Amino acid sequence: LTYDGYKLQRYGNTVVLCGAEDSGTLFSVGDFLHYQFNYETYAADETYIEEGATAYVKDYQITEIPDFWGRETDGYLANYPAYAASLRMRHKAFASHLGGGASEDYLFGAHCESFYKILPPETYKEAHPEWYSTRQLCLVNEEMTAEFIKNIKQQIQKEPNAKIINLGEEDLGGFGTCCNTCKAEIKKYGYSGYVIRFCNKVINAIE
Q1: How far, CA to CA in Å, does 23 sit from each of 39, 40, 50, 76?
Q2: Which of 38, 50, 89, 108 could form a disulfide with 84 if both were Cys (CB 3.0 to 4.6 A apart)?
């Protein structure tokens, strides 16, 4: 069923709603309500459900395996996690009764800028100022890279249920201000190539 897929199936007078994880089970409830009672959700405060004195259980034989798991978005849905859940989206702030937050999917809880979560300046910068550029890490520093990889490996042991390791630089730029090696690499590969080459080193070490 992958990460948040589910089964919705009838056995005699019993209907089973079963997700691979809590989020999948939550999504199966939404679909059951939709197919059984024409339930629709249009906004956080706008829903419809068909009312009647009698309802007969339908013959459910449904298996959902989303092509993209852990779907999340920002904007309107970010402020209404229950509405997001009804659309089979996972918001960062989902409470446990809504299938867990998307932040739980990410190592270090980092869904965007993650470099400073992996190597916090308050922990390392005083002893290793050469590891840090202006708001960034020096991505060609081999000693820094080794510590970066070590911290990720240790965190994997602490968060075995995390599913995504986000490698994201800090906002507001600042690459190429720490050493001539950085500047040369950026000149040769561009900013994106500079970051991608570092990420590939980390990925190869973590795999």
Answers
A1: 19, 19, 25, 20
A2: 89
